[in-house]
Amino acid sequence: MNKVILMGRLTRDPEVRYSQGDSSMAVARYTLAVDRRFRRNNDDQTADFIGCVAFGRSAEFAEKYFRQGLKVIVTGRIQTGSYTNRDGQKVYTTDVVVEDQEFAESKAVSDANAGRYQSAPAPAPAPVSDAGDGFMNIPDGIDEELPFN
What we know:
Layout: E1 4-10, E2 15-18, E3 26-35, E4 47-55, H1 57-65, E5 71-84, E6 90-103, H2 107-112
Parallel strand pairs: 4-6
Antiparallel strand pairs: 1-3, 1-5, 2-3, 3-4, 5-6
């Protein structure tokens, strides 16, 4: 089975081209910066940059709505290939062929994060009580209203 699920931010606006011929089709290419869960051996890079390619209506959607810094979720499959460049050297490629793509955050959050390639750390939760143990105190007399009594 060849299945990929990615969540990351676009490193730049998608590059969209249209095929030639009677039934032209949109082809969108973009790169996602996908955060790594852990650092290895003092590695400074905390994200992998993964190339994605979308075809047809998915490419048109990406062209219309995707912008640099936008956080998206992509599902698809890995496809490898090769070609010979102008210098006569063989170049190997690995891309994710997009089967489905969707927004991973609201437009307001996306606009606030525009231009950033990595997710901002989640804010620390506000303390909910003075108990000091991390649990909220339940007020007296509310026991009858709780659904698990």
